[in-house]
């Protein structure tokens, strides 16, 4: 687009959504989400976004409450009234705020969505991707016992998911995964530790190697790159970094140090699409595979992730499952589902393509704030 876009108003809402089943990772579990839905208004159109901050600070220091505070008090007021020539321009007025990438991404990603609607193109194309169907996997939380896990994994493989990620923690790891490998010898399996180990666990972590896993995600500290590099040197299984990659500079450091062989790109974690694309481009230039991670998003954030995953470097299946895997009822229609076995296809319509259920979002919202110049 050649003309400037003026941001007239930003609206924030908190929409509670209940997960169909409890999702447990090494740092704790959750059954419900409080999703911050962000709308950016300009040129008579509405751009839809979602902030991926969780309810507790177990994954990141950002939470729903810190993100709400930052969005309401500092970020949205810095952006409203501004004129933008490109969606990435929205980062400038927010750059004085240190950290808080998830809160910033809530506005940045809604601005890209607004842009694609004004361009009347699918978000996937506005981001530089295409309408190709993207391969998808599923992230399975910690289960009561191995039998339940094996049953769940079997169900997801039957449903067509291209790869299965299992959450692990000390005491619920190698033996459990070996039992799953035993039952599904050919399945594409991987594990995610969410930082539950230290370098002292080296000998134990090496016992994963014979299990032929695609990767082990974030075994060590959430802010560490050096120990991951030490570990990768002694591990056959590729390490995938998630929490450690907070912005493009972290990706450069991690690749230079050979701290991983794969990167999980979550646009919400890295401050939005601009940074996510930069990490994608860097990894592509160095032949490092990337995939799009998930943060238990509603159908709005899922639409963002599907669109991003169409960029050519995203060669591995993302944590992008159908709406029904998470919610009894999603806040978009139609809901996200597989278009063909193991794949989800972007919708050929402006923005995320699916329609946010505006009435439902308005009536279910437990908090609302309008920020104007
Ligand atoms: O570590 O990838 C993670 C969910 C919440 C927080 C962190 C993570 C996850 C997942 C779920 O693994 C991915 C999904 O949205 O399906
Ligand atoms: Mg992870």
Strand content: 15-25%
Task: Give the second-level CATH assignment, the architecture of the largest domain.
Answer: Alpha-Beta Barrel
Sheet bearing the most strands, described?
A: 7 strands, parallel
SS element count, helices: 11
Distance between the termini: 24 Å
What bound compounds does this protein have? 2-succinylbenzoate, magnesium ion
Radius of gyration: 20 Å
Per CATH, the superfamily of the largest domain is Enolase-like C-terminal domain
Domain tally: 2
CATH topology of the largest domain: TIM Barrel
The secondary structure category is alpha/beta
Query: Count the strands?
Result: 17
Mean pLDDT: 97
Characteristics:
7-stranded parallel beta sheet; binds magnesium ion; alpha/beta; 11 helices; globular; TIM Barrel; binds 2-succinylbenzoate; Enolase-like, domain 1; 2 domains; 4-stranded antiparallel beta sheet; 373 residues
